[in-house]
Amino acid sequence: MGIFARRGRYGERIDGRTDLYDTIGMIGAEFVRRVERLGKVRGIPVRFAAHQGKGSHGRLYYGEHFTTPKDRKQEIGKGLLAAMLKQLGLNPNDLNR
To answer: Whole domain around residue 80: which residue ranges?
Structure first.
């Protein structure tokens, strides 16, 4: 059994990871792409304003909500990812679709 695998009530193998952990390893550019794709599917306007941030930062608008993604070329940690999703009013399952 792997580090995340465990046994269920009837002995079947189940994965002990949550959906949030499945999105770890995402870089900033991928986060922006996934939010843009989600907005397109839901009919919510999404835009990235690079001029509203210093260096590689910018502001990502999802409808009336916004967040400031970290460097688009670097990996996003699980805590920062959770905070950005909360600021946009989303949950991890929304990005995995």
So the answer is: 18-95
